[in-house]
Design a protein that fits this description.
Layout: H1 2-24, H2 31-54, H3 57-60, H4 63-86, H5 90-101, H6 109-117, H7 124-145, H8 156-161, H9 167-180, H10 187-197, H11 200-213, H12 224-249, H13 254-265, H14 271-279, H15 283-308
Length: 310
């Protein structure tokens, strides 16, 4: 149980640092924007390259992968359907779909996997689903939704290759392909990639903390129903669905059921805010959903661990 609290305390402290940075004006008016750009275009691609390059392929492509993939896709589709019904707009639909399905698998998932589940590599299938299935689709939607109305209309063939021009997708996919084909990468290249990747988590968390400084409390804005929908889907529906699929559909053993439910109960990833801020779409929806799901995930993960621990 201490592992859950330790993981959350690390995140909270770094977010607090970002909040204080914004409070004292340490990075100036564009500090948050620059941190987001650094994380999105450089640090996060480097981090994902290293993770995918070193991941165990047997763990990546497993029953856990199938349950995780199906759950995340269902969560994203559920929010998208609600968004279509209530006409929340394409950008908000994409951000809300990410907030309902995309979990904090890196800076929170890894420590919880280590301390609660006993193996940090158990979050690798989650990262694979997110970065190679959901991210290309959702980032393409955000790219289109955030385009200048005066920009030339995209052709169908441009939409096909556009996801693979995204730096986040490039980083994850290139690392995975080199891993699959056992292509060696010398240490003088891997070491700087790992160092740059180490910037990603603190940069994203500090930028998120900076965003909290001048914004209202959650569920008070015009998008409160969007935030509430994403929060309920992520915090409660997602882990319940993972339990049902893992236990009764795929017949996973008790230990693996705990893994898929705990990872599903992780809060919405801070990267979602980074994506929304980069495209200037759905920023408040992302920020408020991340904050609420992070708070709620503490009791949810504790309860799940108590009920399902074999």
């Amino acid at each position: 149980m201490t592992g859950v609290l330790e993981g959350f305390s690390v995140i909270a402290l770094i977010i607090l640092v970002g909040f204080i940075m914004q409070r004292v004006g340490l990075l100036g008016d564009r500090g948050r924007e620059m941190l987001n750009k650094l994380a999105f275009n450089v640090a996060t691609p480097a981090l994902l390259f290293g993770l995918m390059f070193s991941a165990d392929l047997n763990v990546l492509f497993s029953g856990q992968f199938l349950v995780t993939a199906i759950c995340m896709v269902i969560m994203a589709v559920l929010f998208a359907v609600v968004a279509i019904i209530f006409r929340w707009g394409t950008g908000n639909a994409a951000v809300g779909a990410l907030a309902s399905s995309f979990v904090n698998s890196g800076n929170l998932g890894i420590p919880i996997a280590v301390y609660v589940l006993g193996d940090g590599t158990l979050v690798a299938p989650v990262m694979l689903v997110q970065q190679l299935i959901l991210a290309p689709v959702m980032l393409s939607v955000l790219d289109i939704a955030g385009r200048d109305p005066q920009a030339p209309k995209l052709r169908w063939w441009q939409m096909l290759y556009r996801p693979f021009t995204n730096p986040v997708v490039i980083g994850a996919l290139s690392g995975l392909l080199l891993n699959i084909f056992s292509v060696p990468v010398p240490n003088f290249l891997l070491d700087p990639i790992e160092l740059v990747g180490g910037i990603s988590v603190p940069a994203v968390l500090m930028a998120f903390g900076m965003s909290l400084h001048d914004n209202a409390m959650p569920l008070r804005g015009q998008n409160r129903w969007q935030v509430l929908t994403a929060t309920v889907l992520k915090s409660f529906v997602h882990p319940v669905l993972a339990w049902l699929l893992g236990k009764f559909v795929f017949g996973l053993d008790d230990a693996m059921v705990l893994v898929v439910v705990v990872t599903a109960a992780l809060p919405a990833a801070q990267n979602i805010y980074n994506y929304a801020a980069n495209y200037h779409v759905g920023e408040s929806l992302a920020r408020e959903s991340i904050l609420l799901t992070t708070i709620l995930s503490v009791p949810v993960i504790l309860i799940v661990t108590l009920l399902l621990h074999p």
